[in-house]
Design goal:
One of its GO terms (biological process) is transmembrane transport. This protein has 13 helices and two strands; from the N terminus they run H-E-E-H-H-H-H-H-H-H-H-H-H-H-H. The protein is mainly α and about 300 residues long.
């Protein structure tokens, strides 16, 4: 039963990861593409690259600023939708939001680019003399921020609303008997159901963030390097020849960038795992025990000295 899943996991996850790790250390000769050796030169290129540093910073900004905001807004709107009395209205909201997430990111990017990009249709419709895409990193980050919210917020709302709806169905009788207030429902009932969906939502948000491609948002022809607007996807794609400029073509540097970013994400997720609330309480208990142990040891040593 699990064999097909394991085969797919092997083909599309494990083998590509090991292949990326292996190719990241391949350094090709500057004069002969077919001459190669194993070295860390590709990683040194990345440490010296301003574009790679900007790509990491911009992607991290989207992951750690946009994601918490989208989760909070998703929960807020999910609670509002779940409080709607009419089932038909609630279902219409959910269907509209859920279909939005499954529309291609390029399709959403085209509409976003048309409204806020080079065409600036949104400002023209309202008669505003505003250009949403400026010529600096800050303005581009704002565009990424709003695009990312537009992309992930429907998914967050729908999944959280499903979790809330599930807990409502499960504890319907308890609500009627105990007459729980809104906050009591959320804290004692909904919170535990939401926890089961939280990991899926978080991982999906991180994946969507990592895959954001600026050209789908800003339009083609934007010089990202000039405005420090690279993301990790655009940076890797550049070295895979995506821009059509052969001078940038270097797949091994793209592999090294992919591997470093993958390691970075794993490290962040590991930190999240270590810093979970339950774990923090354990660490606090361990630190208390350690302090008591050290105090007892010092007291014993002091008693020994006094005895002598």
């Amino acid at each position: 039963m699990l064999l097909p899943i394991l085969i797919l996991l092997l083909l599309f996850s494990i083998i590509p990861i090991f292949s990326t790790f292996k190719n990241a250390f391949v350094v090709r000769s500057e004069y002969d593409f077919f001459t190669a050796k194993y070295d860390v030169e590709n990683f040194l290129v990345l440490t010296r690259s301003k574009g790679f540093n900007n790509a990491i910073k911009n992607t991290a900004f989207l992951a750690f600023i946009t994601t918490p905001i989208s989760l909070f807004l998703g929960l807020f709107f999910a609670l509002i939708i779940s409080s709607i009395c009419f089932k038909l209205s609630r279902n219409l909201f959910i269907t509209a939001l859920y279909s939005q997430f499954f529309i291609s990111s390029f399709a959403i990017g085209l509409s976003f680019s048309f409204l806020f990009g080079q065409h600036n249709a949104f400002a023209k419709i309202l008669g505003l003399k505003i250009n949403f895409i400026g010529n600096d990193r800050q303005s581009v980050l704002w565009v990424y921020f709003f695009f990312q919210l537009w992309r992930v917020l429907p998914f967050n709302i729908v999944i959280l609303q499903f979790a809330i709806n599930k807990s409502n169905l499960k504890h319907y009788k308890s609500f009627r008997i105990d007459r729980l207030k809104f906050f009591e429902k959320f804290w004692y009932i909904h919170r535990y159901e939401i926890k089961h969906s939280f990991t899926v939502i978080l991982y999906t948000n991180f994946i969507v963030t990592a895959l954001i491609y600026p050209s789908a948002v800003l339009g083609q022809g934007q010089d990202l390097a000039a405005i420090d607007g690279e993301t990790i996807t655009s940076y890797i794609y550049e070295f895979l020849g995506g821009s059509g400029r052969s001078i940038k073509f270097n797949p091994e540097v793209a592999y090294a960038a992919s591997f470093l970013f993958f390691s970075y994400i794993l490290f962040i997720l590991f930190l999240f795992y270590l810093l979970r609330f339950k774990k923090l309480r354990k660490y606090y208990q361990w630190s208390k025990q350690l302090v008591i142990f050290i105090k007892n040891k010092k007291a014993k040593q002091k008693n020994k000295v006094n005895y002598v």
